[in-house]
From TrEMBL:
Belongs to the cytochrome P450 family. One of its GO terms (biological process) is oxylipin biosynthetic process. Keywords: Fatty acid biosynthesis, Fatty acid metabolism, Heme, Iron, Lipid biosynthesis, Lipid metabolism, Lyase, Metal-binding, Oxylipin biosynthesis. It holds the Pfam family p450. This is Allene oxide synthase. Heme binds at residue 463. GO terms for molecular function: heme binding; iron ion binding; lyase activity; monooxygenase activity; oxidoreductase activity, acting on paired donors, with incorporation or reduction of molecular oxygen. It comes from the Eukaryota. PANTHER family: ALLENE OXIDE SYNTHASE, CHLOROPLASTIC, CYTOCHROME P450 26. The gene is AOS. Pathway: Lipid metabolism; oxylipin biosynthesis. Its cofactor is heme.
Length: 510
């Protein structure tokens, strides 16, 4: 993929990940000579502790604890404490009747978690959403790329197609972002002036969708039959897929007996999904579908995948990440905000007032802040993988035998906030990654399903949009601080991430 950013240009394979050099590693047990990572472990082998109990009642009780009585973080933390281990067997939602087997081996530290990125050891077939898979009726009958393992023949051509999608109009990305998000900030500014508050999350939903369609497809949704309906349709469609693992804030028992126990029937969303398909079929005609044809993909498979990646992966990700960025930078306070404003304006001025890639490369604090947002609150926090063969996985303290076929589950925030890797791991430290030495810690920033200093390839399951995501997140801060000296936020919860309102926007004074 043509890289958007020079910072993540390293093409070294995952085996170079510092965690996998030396003692921190996964090692094959059945054939030590084919070890893909590092020398055999010297840590004591420990039986994987188990938190599993009664077959049916256990998973239902655990699901209730995970969503309501404890919450996800506490559910996992309390089990680590109970069994004194960051690698252990436990149940994850939704469990029966939607998922027959909710038992997984949880990897809950910075050492064990990254084994999930090793495509030699880990299969990721139909595991994107975990122990259950949404109906294929929701994706036109196709298993989209996120569900396809690296060994399946469709993986490489589909990933190449998405690399093409993200790069073929790259000169449009910065100008479309500035114009769409510039309009968003204009309207948020007038809301704050008139009402004292403005809903960033709501405005971001529409802006993110319009930006993606304008920059990647050169179309304006408002001028199509879709009008302004895109974001709402996508949100409903995502709910049909992720309902079993979401909370919407309904009364807990009611929500658990419905959303987490019954699949929403896909026919209810079919008409809306068909509107999206028609829109993406029209919008992809020409160079994108020509590329799909060159790659040997059918028009149908290409369109359902382009739709999925644009609406689920890209749009879904931006609607979680952008409010997070405002939340953390808002909370970081006026000193950090003033430093960002100074740095960003000086770098843009040095480029003759233009927001260029070069200007953005000369903003070390801004870059660090985005990485820190991605570290402290990874937008997609759960990852799954199935052992292709027997191997050993290490935690900080012990080594554990994993058997072929076993399902592994990683909770990413416990890896990226591991206090044995990061100082003040629970704190937002704006300049955590500023400077050559501190940049090395980027190998422990894992939001993209891989280390931040490694680029996605057709041979792995790292996010195809990695560089694009970092670029747009950087542009959000650049746009914000070219316009404003500082801002304040009010943060609430939403089904996927945070809901953020702006309560002040102080216009740029220098
Ligand atoms: C904030 C935005 C985003 C986040 C947080 C994000 C996160 C992720 C994560 C965690 C995975 C791995 C999931 C798993 O297998 O367990 C993934 C995979 C993937 N992402 Fe992203 N993503 C984002 C944006 C994008 C964008 C913009 C695109 C491209 C249009 C994209 C396309 C994909 C694809 C195609 C895969 C599967 C890769 C493969 O099968 O090899 N994502 N993403």
């Amino acid at each position: 993929m043509a890289s958007f950013l020079s910072v993540s240009s390293s093409s070294s394979p995952y085996h170079n990940h510092p965690l996998l050099r030396g003692k921190l590693t996964a090692t094959l047990t059945n054939n030590p000579t084919t070890t893909t990572t590092s020398p055999p472990t010297t840590l004591p082998i420990r039986k994987i502790p188990s938190d599993l109990s009664l077959p049916l009642l256990g998973p239902l009780r655990d699901r209730f604890a995970y969503f309501y009585t404890q919450g996800r973080g506490e559910y996992l933390r309390s089990r680590i404490n109970r069994h004194r281990s960051t690698v252990l067997r436990l149940n994850v939602p939704p469990g029966p009747p939607i998922a027959r087997d909710p038992a997984v081996i949880a990897l809950l530290d910075a050492v064990s978690f990254p084994v999930l990125f090793d495509a030699d050891l880990i299969e990721k077939k139909n595991l994107f959403t975990g122990t259950f898979m949404p109906s294929l009726h929701l994706t036109g009958g196709y298993r989209t790329l996120s569900y396809i393992d690296t060994t399946e023949p469709e993986h490489a051509p589909l990933k190449k197609l998405l690399f093409f999608l993200l790069s073929h109009r790259r000169t449009h990305v910065v100008p479309e972002f500035r114009s769409t998000f510039g309009n968003l900030f204009d309207s948020l500014e007038s809301d704050v002036a008139s009402a004292g508050t403005a809903d960033f999350s709501e405005g971001n939903d529409q802006a993110a969708f319009n930006f993606l369609i304008r920059s990647l497809f050169g179309k304006d949704p408002a001028e199509s039959e879709l009008g302004t309906d895109g974001p709402n349709i996508v949100k409903k469609w995502v709910l049909f897929q992720l309902g079993p693992i979401l909370t919407l804030g309904l009364p807990s028992l009611l929500e658990d007996l419905t959303l987490h126990s019954i699949r929403l029937p896909s026919f209810l969303i079919k008409k809306d999904y068909d509107r999206l398909v028609k829109f993406f079929l029209d919008s992809s005609a020409g160079s994108i579908l020509d590329e799909a044809y060159r790659l040997g993909l059918s028009k149908e498979e290409a369109v359902h995948n382009i739709l999925f990646s644009t609406c689920f992966n890209a749009y879904g990700g931006m609607t979680i990440l952008f409010p997070n960025v405002l939340k953390w930078v808002g909370r970081a306070g006026s000193r950090v905000q003033a430093e960002l404003a100074e740095e960003i304006r000086a770098a843009v001025k040095a480029e003759g007032g233009e927001v260029t890639m070069k200007a953005m490369e000369s903003m070390p604090l801004m870059k660090s802040v985005i990485y820190e947002c991605l570290r402290i609150e990874p937008p997609v926090s759960l990852q799954y993988g199935r052992a292709r063969k027997d191997f050993i996985v290490n935690s900080h303290e012990a080594a554990f035998e994993i058997r072929a076929g076993e399902l592994l589950f990683g909770y990413q925030p416990f890896a990226t906030k591991d206090p044995r890797v990061f100082d003040r791991a629970e704190e937002f430290v704006a300049d955590r990654f500023v400077g050559e030495e501190k940049e090395k810690l980027l190998s422990h920033v894992l939001w993209s399903n891989g280390p931040e200093n490694v680029s996605p390839t057709v041979g792995d399951k790292q996010c195809a949009g990695k560089d694009f995501v970092v670029l747009v997140a950087r542009m959000l801060l650049v746009e914000l601080f070219l316009r404003y000296d500082s801002f304040d936020v009010e943060v609430g919860a939403s089904a996927l991430g945070s809901s953020v309102k702006l309560t002040s926007l102080k216009p740029a004074s220098f």
